[in-house]
Amino acid sequence: MSSDNESKGTDGDRGKSRIASMKLNSSSRGGEVKGGEGGNPLSHLSNAEFVSAVMGAIPVEATAVVCSKAGDPDTGGWPAKAAGDVNAQCPRDKNNYLNCSSFLQSDDGSVSATKEKCCAFHFLMLDDVGTKGDERKLTGVEPTYKIETSAGNFQWGFRLSPPVTDIDEAEALQNAVVAAGLSDPGSKGVGRWVRMPNAINGKSKHKDKTGRPFECRLVTWNPDITYTPKSLAAALSIELAAPAVSRVASGRTPSKRRTGALTGNAVFTPAPSENPVLTALKARGLHKKVIGHGKHDITCPWCHEHTDALDTGAAYFEPSTEYPNGGFKCQHSHGDQLSIHNLLEHVDIKSDDATGKPRIRTMPGHINGIVEAAEFLLAETGEYFQCGA
């Protein structure tokens, strides 16, 4: 689910939003109450403590994302906000949501809960357990938390440690739980919103006879229980399918089909085996390591301007639909004046080449080759099909 953000912030604000270092109160270490019972002993757990625990370690260049809505949550958009003062951002009389993933912030401090901006997938949520999801299949399985989101209906959360930075791996896990009938089919996607414990469910169908909205309740809390995708699959008795297309940080590996399509085609130039910006960064000794899906820790070319010339806080982001030339961010004081265009100029890469995309040249007399190449590339996306008349 995609959302637009309304929040802005300085580097200091972003530091405050990295809530992974928050500490849980010693009285918040666990417990369980059965749905329907009053006087929930877990009600003291704040939304901020909940977010801190289920997100775990957040990559330094990313932020947790929250959303708070009044009234019926099905109306209006989903304004994403970088998690800062969560309790103030998400008061208990609103529909309050946390995203399962952490996301990169734009240069202006805004954030969008989109797949292209996803940095890591932190926990898996099973939605509508008790109605659409079969709770009997979960006998003996210990989640990190359970929240009753409407009468007799629950969301189960499973914290992943470490968080999953491969988007394909995260989606394979979601697909597997839905295929097994453990969750609502609508709960897929790395930009998935989940409800917080201190919140209402403002949907009209869940209001009581007096018109009062349903109040969400945390009924199970096991913050120390974590899983890897493999151990969670074993616990849930599901089988993880291999991703249909392997996306690697250095670019897609050409398939056999692509190689065949290129033979004898004078108008088609395939995508380079590695993004040319990465090639240039490595050649200059600026590339350090991969830190996520399409994200790289690098040495800032202008690190001599950093305080004490520290070689920290710089990242390169591979091209995406939203940012076709890729992205560059330095967390130091000159970061607001530097962009991907400065980095490309420094490594001597033209903007057109930075996209790392294949090219089709339009040339007179080569219409068949142009059509062949275009059909091939559209087919490889998996989003189009051809139907013969």
Please specify the SSE layout and strand pairing.
Blueprint: H1 11-17, E1 31-32, H2 47-55, E2 62-63, E3 65-69, E4 81-82, H3 86-89, E5 95-99, E6 101-104, E7 118-129, E8 145-150, E9 153-164, H4 167-179, E10 193-195, E11 200-201, E12 214-215, E13 217-221, E14 226-227, H5 229-236, H6 256-262, E15 268-269, H7 276-283, E16 287-292, E17 295-298, E18 314-317, E19 327-330, H8 340-347, H9 351-354, E20 359-360, H10 367-380
Parallel strand pairs: 9-14
Antiparallel strand pairs: 1-13, 2-6, 3-4, 3-5, 5-10, 6-7, 7-9, 8-9, 8-13, 11-12, 15-20, 16-17, 17-18, 18-19
Entry summary:
By secondary structure, this protein is of the alpha+beta class. The chain is built from ten helices and 20 strands.
Question: How would you explain this protein's 3D organization?
Answer:
A hairpin with a 2-residue loop joins β8 (145-150) and β9 (153-164). The model is unreliable at 1-29, 33-39 and 244-264 (pLDDT under 50). Helix content is 21%, strand content 22%. Strands 1, 2, 6, 7, 8, 9, 13 and 14 form an 8-stranded mixed sheet that branches. Strands 4-3-5-10 form a 4-stranded antiparallel sheet, with no helix packed on it. It is α+β, with helices and mostly antiparallel strands.
Span between termini? 36 Å
Q: Structural class of the helices, strands and pairings?
A: alpha+beta
The helix/strand series, from N terminus to C terminus, equals HEHEEEHEEEEEHEEEEEHHEHEEEEHHEH
Helix-residue proportion: 10-25%
Question: What is the number of beta strands?
Answer: 20
The geometry reads as: globular
Over the alpha carbons, how many angstroms does the gyration radius reach? Answer: 23 Å
Overall mean confidence score, pLDDT: 80
In the predicted model, the low-confidence regions spanning at least 5 consecutive residues are 1-29, 33-39, 244-264
Instruction: Give the number of helices.
Output: 10
The biggest sheet, with number of strands, parallel, antiparallel or mixed sense and barrel status, is: 8 strands, mixed
Strand content: 15-25%
